[in-house]
Write a structure and sequence with these properties.
globular; 10 helices; about 240 residues; alpha+beta; four-stranded antiparallel beta sheet; about 10% strand; Muramoyl-pentapeptide Carboxypeptidase, domain 2; two-stranded antiparallel sheet; single chain
């Protein structure tokens, strides 16, 4: 069975639907809605910027393998580095999955999701960490996210919502991660462990770290770290960008 074009988009293996701006790539309707959100944020005193947008399968694979190999740090919920050498293979995978998706299972593959920050709250040379400390009430980006919470709650977020609005026992809460509901939902609904396995079989990008453990645990890991996300608000799901 070969992957369809839609499945390849789902898995971060097909990029024809994306438009590039300022070093980031998203689908065209997402750019239009994001401009509306950026303008509203500016009026409220924030300078909304993208930290990360589209991420290919190949890039997610590199991140995944580097974390499992100890070449990139893995953090716990207190922003402390985890010593993976002290953990079992399954425990290592679960630690990585708190903040990093399996290759092929990242919402960043779709061109609908992005991580954001407030550039007005930090110096130009500040290095954004996308950490929990940055987005809590006392962090530099806390005010932006409180403002966003209010916009999402009243249906004025231009189709954006937080899929990781709270900890559901899988991916940690990520206030910085926004998803454009009208386009993201078809991808979310099409995601499955079966399609993910097919991607790993057909991938041209080389070995996947901890592949045997992933295969043996995939159904439970997929339910916990992929499917446990927030339902989009109805007004976000039905948002139509201006013509």
């Amino acid at each position: 069975m070969s992957l369809s074009v839609f499945q390849r988009q789902l898995l971060g293996l097909h990029e024809n639907a994306l438009q590039a701006r300022g070093g980031h790539r998203l689908q065209a309707p997402v750019w239009a809605a994001l401009q509306c959100l950026t303008d509203a944020a500016f009026e409220a005193g924030f300078r909304l910027k993208i930290a990360s947008a589209y991420r290919s399968y190949e890039r997610q694979l590199a991140i995944w393998n580097a974390k499992l190999a100890g070449q990139r740090p893995v953090f716990d919920d207190d922003d402390q580095v985890v010593d993976l050498a002290t953990l079992s293979d399954v425990e290592c995978i679960r630690c990585v999955l708190r903040f990093s998706a399996m290759p092929g299972a990242s919402r960043h593959h779709w061109g609908t999701d992005l991580d954001i920050f407030d550039a007005a709250a930090v110096d130009d040379d500040y290095r954004v960490q996308l950490s929990l400390a940055e987005v809590d009430a006392a962090g530099p980006f806390g005010p932006l996210h409180e403002w966003l919470d209010e916009r999402i709650a009243v249906g004025e977020s231009f189709g954006f919502y937080r899929p990781y609005d709270k900890d559901r026992g899988g991916v940690a809460a990520e206030r910085w991660h926004l998803s454009y509901a009208p386009l993201a939902m078809p991808y979310e609904q099409a995601s499955s462990a079966e399609v993910l396995r097919l991607a790993w079989l057909e991938s041209e990008y080389g070995g996947l770290g901890a592949r045997e453990v992933l295969d043996s645990q995939l159904e439970s890991l997929f339910e916990r770290f992929v499917l446990r996300v927030a339902e989009p608000p109805e007004n976000a799901l039905k948002y139509l960008p201006p013509a």
